[in-house]
C-alpha cells in the first residue's frame, strides 16, 4: 500500500492546503532512499521534509565526508552507477526519491536500471523522480514529446532524450512511479503557489523555483495523485 493521505487536490496548490492536509489526516511514517541529495532539488527536498518531521532520509553520495542535514549514519558513500551501492541504499527504505541530473552522459538511465532492480529486490513499490518538461506531451503535436516539437526552445535535446529513456523504462515496469517535470528551474524558496497538470506543462508556464519543485515533490509523497503519470509544473 502507498504511504498516503486520502484527500486529493488538483490544479493549484497554496501553502494553507498542505497545512490542512497535515492537520486533518493520518500521515504514514516513511523511510526515503534519496539519490541526488547534493543537487539543488535534492537539498531543497531535505529542507522541505524536515519541516514536517515524519520522514527518515537515507542519501547516496559520491564523496566520503559529504555533509548533509541528516544523521551521518544515514549518508551512504557510493555511486548511482553501481548496482550494489543503489541496492544498499534502497534496502533501508520503503520509498525512493531520485533528484539525479543527466550529468552530460547516461548516468540517469544507468542509475534508473539499478533503482528498478533494487526496488524489485527489496520489495519497494513507490518511486518519485525529477524529470524535465521536455518529456511532457506537446500541446501543438500531442503525439510528440515537447522536446520534439516547436514548443521547446532548447537547442540541445540530449538531456531530454535521457529523461525520455527513463520514462519509457518506467512505463514497462509494475511500479508506482511519478515523474515530476518542472520547466526552467531558477533558485528560490518555496512559495507554495503554482500550477500542475498531468502529462502536459501548464499553459504558458515558463519557470518554477527549486523550492517549489521540492514542495510539490513532498506533497506528492504524502498525498499521491499522479501514480504512473508525468506531471508538469510551472507558475
From TrEMBL:
Q: Which GO terms describe its molecular function?
A: oxidoreductase activity, acting on the CH-NH group of donors, NAD or NADP as acceptor
Q: Which domain of life is it from?
A: Bacteria
Q: Which residues form the NAD(P)-binding domain?
A: 36-221
Task: Please state what the protein is called.
Answer: NAD-dependent epimerase/dehydratase
Query: Which taxonomic lineage is given here?
Result: Bacteria, Bacillati, Bacillota, Bacilli, Bacillales
Give the gene that encodes this protein.
Answer: yheG
